[in-house]
Amino acid sequence: MADTVLRVEDLSVYYYTLRGIVRAVEGAWLEARRGELVAIVGESGSGKSTLGYSLLRLVPPPGRIVKGRILVDGVDLTELQGDELRRARGELVSIVFQDPFTTLDPVRRIGDQLLEVLLEHGVPEEEARGRVPQLLESVGLPREAARAYPHQLSGGQRQRVSIAAAIALEPRVLVADEPTTALDVIVQKQIMDLLDELRRRHGMAVVLVTHDIALAAERASSIAIMYAGKIVEQGPAEEVLREPLHPYTRALLDSVPDIDNPRWPRPIPGQPPDLRRPPPGCRFAPRCPVVMEKCRSKEPPVVSPRPGRKAACWLHAP
Ligand SMILES: Nc1ncnc2c1ncn2[C@@H]1O[C@H](COP(=O)(O)OP(=O)(O)OP(=O)(O)O)[C@@H](O)[C@H]1O
Ligand code: NI
């Protein structure tokens, strides 16, 4: 599609630990269109953050991208090096973390930190100085916040500053890894509202990494479901939630309390696999209520049984 700004193709990311190779992301695929919010949803340890960091080539050691392509506006990030990569981080794709201190330096004033982001990307000094107050205002902070140190701000205000830093260069894609998990509910809503507003204003795609399917349901236009390192399904949010294609998506939906669903939440039986020794075939096969013989030996292909929807499941494969 013409307005696709992010396309992840066949991406695998492994951690080479002393105790074995953790196949944290395997053959992942993902798409985001201009201005849309894509939520990556999955249980803890399913590889959501690893996938999110990969989009900036920021996988921490001993992690490494072992294969695949990450196309942002047609530029393959996996091929960039040095200065090109540094420029792409910020100008093409940027990230907001759960803990704003990951981005903010506790001993430097907010304004200086934002200024530095602009200067590092070649914005002339005078222009950059003029942009700092605008940036603060665009994230709902007073321009006086420039003189503050991070510890003088509340958690929500600090998250606004890290969002300001992330959008300073107007990236095409903003990855937000559990950006509101550390905040109380009211502030959580304000930060999500801010992300929505910035996304609409700049036409930027937001990739929201979250374990919270209710948050995804409320905010996302598109949902990608991740299980044990694999994207198992992606499609328009309402369709995925109303009529999931993958048995894991259904199990995940049944496992969360839902006021519209009179049934008691049913936890998914069994445990996710050890990613050092994932099962052959479909990784969900050992827990799947509708497993078939071939699921245990052959990896399901990614198919598109309906326009706009994709799933990796033998139920829908020819
Ligand atoms: N630095 C690391 N070294 C080794 N293994 C790692 C490292 N970081 C993550 N992993 C492993 O990679 C897998 C995916 O982890 P990841 O943090 O990406 O999952 P997640 O879906 O973001 O989980 P959570 O919801 O708990 O944040 C897990 O098995 C995890 O133990
Ligand atoms: Ni995570």
From TrEMBL:
Which first-to-last residue range defines the signal peptide?
none
Cross-referenced Gene3D superfamilies? P-loop containing nucleotide triphosphate hydrolases (3.40.50.300)
Q: Which GO terms describe its cellular component?
A: plasma membrane
Q: Which GO terms describe its molecular function?
A: ABC-type nickel transporter activity; ATP binding; ATP hydrolysis activity
Record InterPro entries: AAA+_ATPase, ABC_Ni/Peptide_Import, ABC_transporter-like_ATP-bd, ABC_transporter-like_CS, Oligopep_ABC_C, P-loop_NTPase
Per its UniProt record, what CDD domains does this chain match?
Answer: ABC_NikE_OppD_transporters
- Reactions performed catalytically: Ni(2+)(out) + ATP + H2O = Ni(2+)(in) + ADP + phosphate + H(+)
Q: Which PROSITE patterns match?
A: ABC_TRANSPORTER_1, ABC_TRANSPORTER_2
What SMART domains does the record point to? AAA
Give compartment(s). Cell membrane
Keywords of the record, alphabetical order, are: ATP-binding, Cell membrane, Ion transport, Membrane, Nucleotide-binding, Translocase, Transport
Which biological process annotations from GO are given for this protein? peptide transport
Q: Which residues form the ABC transporter domain?
A: 6-253
Q: How does it sit in the membrane?
A: Peripheral membrane protein
In the Enzyme Commission scheme, what number(s) does this protein have? 7.2.2.11
How does this protein assemble?
Answer: The complex is composed of two ATP-binding proteins (NikD and NikE), two transmembrane proteins (NikB and NikC) and a solute-binding protein (NikA).
PANTHER family per the UniProt record, alphabetical: NICKEL ABC TRANSPORTER, ATP-BINDING PROTEIN, OLIGOPEPTIDE TRANSPORT ATP-BINDING PROTEIN APPD
Protein name, as recorded: Nickel import system ATP-binding protein NikD
Taxon lineage: Archaea, Thermoproteota, Thermoprotei, Desulfurococcales, Pyrodictiaceae
